[in-house]
Amino acid sequence: MNGDVDPAVKALEARQDEILRKLYELKAAVEGLAKTVTTPDADLDVTVSSSLSSQSSSCAIFKGTTNLDALLGEDLGALRDIVINANPAQPPLTLLVLHGLLCQRYRVLSTVHVHSSVSSVPPQLLSCLGPKHADSYARHMFHLGFTLIWKDVPKLEMKFSVCNMCPIEGEANVARFLFKLLAPYPSDPALATLVDSWVDTGFYQLADGSTKERAAVLRALNSALGRGPWLSGLEFSLADIACYCCLLQNGSASSIAANVQGWMKSCENLGHFGPAKLLLK
User: Fold this and answer.
1) Whether the predicted model's global pTM rises above the 0.70 cut
2) Where are the beta strands (DSSP E) in the chain?
C-alpha cells in the first residue's frame, strides 16, 4: 500500500475526533449549568456567545499590576466565573467597556444568556460580548469567566462566589470590582476619593439625575477637564469610563462644552468604547 492510509481508517479517525469535540462541548455545557445553578439562576433559556481573547499589552494605559489569586482567591482548578444579571432595558455600558479591557489582559470565556423572565432581547445585546470561540469547550484554557444574563431585575447585580461573598448590586459598584481586576485604585487616598466621587456623580446625577443636576455635572466636568486631560488628573481611570458611558446613555453628549468635547474625543481615541457605542445605534 506504499504507506497510504486506508480512506475508511481516515474517515473513522475524523468521526472519532468529531465525537470527542462534541463530548467536550457537552462537558463545558454541564459545567456552565452547574455554575449558574449555584448563583442561583438555573432557569436559563439560551446560551448565545462565548469568546476567547489572548493577553495583550494594550492595557498598558493602566499602571500597576493585579493578582487574580489575591483578588479572587486561589484558582483550584474551577473557572472563576463572574456572573452578572442585567436588565436589557438598561444595558450596562460601563461593564461592556470593562469586559473589553479585561479581554485585553486575561483569557476570558465570555457568555451571554437570556433568562426566562425576559421575552425578547435585541440582537445587539445577544452579541455584545463578541462571537463564539471554537475553544469555548476547553474551560481550563481561560483565566476568567464573564457570564452576562439578561434578566428582568430592578437593579444590576453581580455574583462571584456564593460561599464567600454576597452579591454586589448596582452598576457603579460592579464597575469598581471589575476595574480592580485591571489596575489597583490610587494609593493616594485623596485621589482614590476623587475617582469614587466622579463615579458616583456619573451614575447618580449624570445618568439618573434631573435636568438641573445634569447641567451642573456638565459644568463641573468642563471645569475639571480644564485643569487636566482626565477627570482624576494625569491618568485615565474608572472615573473617565463611568462618566463617558453615562454621557452616551443619557444623550447629553450632543450639547457639551469644549473641554468635555475634547475629553470625549480623547476617550474615543483609546479605542475602548466601541462596544458601548454599538449598543446605542
Assistant:
1) yes
2) 44-49, 80-86, 108-115, 144-150, 157-159, 168-169
